[in-house]
């Protein structure tokens, strides 16, 4: 994971960061120092079409503990984070990832 100078997570080396807080899909703001992700954009469009609330934030690693977190990219689609290495924080179960991956596959189909 790449972070800004204040320790907020921004993106993966080859992926964009998305996560869930309850029923809200969260993403790093568009003006963050991250590359624009095509898959990120598509998933945010799906969220808008489905009426899913989207919130933009710069998370500290501890703020993602226990939440469903995705690293998304054109090559692999949605990759759910299964564990955080080095800090002992729990990863959330990938409850939504399969259905959202199916929707993404239909768009790219």
Automatic annotation (TrEMBL):
The record lists the organism as freshwater metagenome
In alphabetical order, the GO MF annotations are: catalytic activity
Cross-referenced SUPFAM superfamilies: D-aminoacid aminotransferase-like PLP-dependent enzymes
Protein name listed in UniProt? Unannotated protein
The record, for Pfam families, names:
Aminotran_4
